[in-house]
Write a structure and sequence with these properties.
Order of helices and strands: HHHHHHHHEHEHH
Structural class: mainly alpha
CATH superfamily of the largest domain: Cytochrome c-like domain
Largest sheet: 2 strands, antiparallel
CATH topology of the largest domain: Cytochrome Bc1 Complex, Chain D, domain 2
Strand order of the largest sheet: 1-2
Shape: globular
Length: about 375
């Protein structure tokens, strides 16, 4: 049971004193915010881009590109191979084999492909933050990786990309090899892509893919209903877990805000050094070259996370319970370079872990519109 002194002042437990049997859990709504737990506000409305207002034609174009094998180097790779729409936009495998042209289950990516749920809100993306400019660039970037094989990079090149080579190859795909895309771009952006240069078509492709993925959000969660005052929307176990999360367990030191992420990079000992002092994956250090970033990875968003197993940059833990146990136990301190923030998380008992698991389940959100999860009947 969490201690009251570890909870925000607006949150209280009500307990019977004489017989020590707890009454129903009571958490008042903060009159200033209208929330029981202001630290975790609901998702805001999907933002509208001034340079790329949403239209069904853009989403349809992006959805087609997302699932069209013809746009990969081999004719077998798709965005959906690693980010399956019917699998909460991830594949449920530790590391993916994006190019299905290979006859065997390999070669695989060296990192887990995380879910794309709510990525429209993220101010930082990718496990190490590499090659990040904005969502448009991130959504089209896989064409420049070994993932999609457009740039002819070997899968062993890790985070290396060949954007110039991929731009040229994608331009040829969209204007010559699969010319049906010319009309689809015309319908979406009112331009003839044959009159644009490779850079402009690359950018428009990212805008179309972003329009599509902007529909993959987790609005309408049970937690948000409870947090805004709807009694009974979540179980008492989930409510206890939410209070623990923002209170005694100190999870909010990294997992805060509407998306439950600070979008910073932390070493939580998921890639500790071996006997020779080197890590299997140096994480953010590969981008910054700073020793403090060795073994550090981006804090993941947690809305919908209960459905997007496995977890961490290598997909090495398959359950939410396992993640909580790793972060609240001695394993989180195994790397000498671990972030001091992990020391603020106490070791939790089984009941506390179970409550936090229920809280995370309550963040799942309503179902995504099925039309964005299905294969398009007719591709360009």
């Amino acid at each position: 049971m969490p201690s009251l002194r570890h909870l925000p002042l607006a949150l209280v437990f009500a307990f019977a004193c004489a017989d020590e049997e707890p009454r129903a859990l009571e958490v008042p709504v903060d009159p200033a915010t209208g929330l029981r737990i202001p630290e975790i506000p609901p998702l805001p409305p999907v933002p509208e881009w001034e340079d790329n207002p949403f239209t069904p034609a853009k989403a349809r174009l992006g959805q087609a590109m997302f699932s069209d094998r013809r746009l990969s180097g081999s004719g077998q790779g798709t965005c959906g191979n690693c980010h399956l729409p019917t699998g909460w936009f991830q594949s449920s495998t530790p590391t993916d084999v994006p190019d299905r042209a290979y006859p065997e289950l390999g070669p695989a990516l060296h990192r887990n492909a995380p879910s794309l749920l709510n990525i429209i809100y993220a101010p930082m993306m990718r496990w190490d933050g590499s090659h990040f400019t904005d969502l448009y660039d991130v959504m089209v970037l896989p064409y420049a990786e070994a993932n999609m094989n457009l740039s002819q990079l070997d899968i062993g090149h890790g985070e290396e990309v060949d954007i110039p080579g991929a731009r040229a190859a994608l331009y040829a795909k969209l204007t010559e090899e699969v010319p049906g895309y010319i009309d689809w771009f015309e319908a979406a952006f009112e331009v003839d892509i044959r009159e644009l240069d490779e850079h402009e078509v690359w950018r428009l492709s990212g805008m179309a893919l972003s329009s599509y993925i902007s529909r993959a959000t987790t609005h309408g969660s049970a937690f948000d209903a409870w947090n805004q005052g709807e009694d009974g929307a979540i179980s008492e176990s989930a409510a206890r877990g939410a209070l623990l999360f923002v209170g005694e367990a100190n999870c909010v030191v990294c997992h805060s805000g509407a998306l439950l992420s600070d979008f910073q990079f932390h070493n939580v000992s998921t890639s500790p050094p071996g006997p020779e002092g080197t890590r299997a994956d140096e994480g953010r250090y590969l981008v910054t070259g700073l020793d403090v970033d060795r073994g550090a990875f981006l804090t993941p968003m947690l809305r919908g996370a209960s459905k997007t197993s496995p977890y961490f940059h290598e997909g090495i833990i398959t359950s939410v319970r396992g993640v909580i146990e790793q972060k609240s136990g001695p394993a989180a301190l195994a790397d000498p370079n671990h972030d001091p923030l992990v020391e603020l998380v106490p070791e939790l008992d089984e009941d506390q872990v179970a409550d936090i698991v229920e809280f995370l389940k309550s963040l799942e959100g309503a179902s995504i519109d099925s039309k964005y999860l299905e294969m398009i009947d007719e591709l360009p």
